[in-house]
Design a protein that fits this description.
Blueprint (H helix, E strand, L loop, with lengths): L5 E3 L1 H6 L1 E2 L2 E6 L2 E4 L11 H5 L4 E2 L1 H8 L4 H4 L4 E5 L6
Parallel strand pairs: 1-6, 3-5
Antiparallel strand pairs: 2-3, 3-4, 4-6
The structure holds protoporphyrin IX containing FE.
The site of protoporphyrin IX containing FE (HEM) has 18 residues, from helix 2, helix 3 and helix 4.
């Protein structure tokens, strides 16, 4: 539920860049794309290009007509936030 959604900084996102632990952000929303890898019509290699980083531009360039928010609703991790000031 919405209570368990995380605030994700770019450095946290970057830690999830492995095939067995892959997160990506699209328009500020962070998804765990790991369970979707085997199902991506464009293949594993293409999808993993966005693991651990913002995939908004690549996603829009390849298939702007696909509704990622609908498709990966169950894989929503949280929302991107800025790094805390240090
Ligand atoms: C195809 C979903 C990320 C590259 C597709 C299709 C879907 C899909 C539903 C079929 C589209 C159609 O036939 O109209 C997703 C989702 C993504 C994602 C939910 C994010 C979680 C990416 C990324 C890339 C990519 C980041 C590129 C770096 C492609 C390519 C195809 C494709 C090249 C065409 C495959 C073909 O027709 O042979 N994707 N995609 N996708 N996707 Fe993705």
């Amino acid at each position: 539920g919405v209570d368990s959604l995380m605030r994700v900084t770019p450095s946290i996102l970057k830690q999830h860049n492995k095939r067995d632990d892959a997160w990506s952000s699209f328009n500020g929303k962070v998804y765990n794309i790991t369970p979707y890898i085997d199902f991506h019509p464009g293949g594993e290699k293409e999808l993993l290009r966005v693991a651990g980083r913002d995939g908004t531009k690549l996603f829009a360039a390849t298939h702007a007509w696909v509704n990622v928010d609908f498709m990966l609703d169950a894989c929503l991790v949280g929302f991107m936030v800025s790094e805390p000031a240090s």
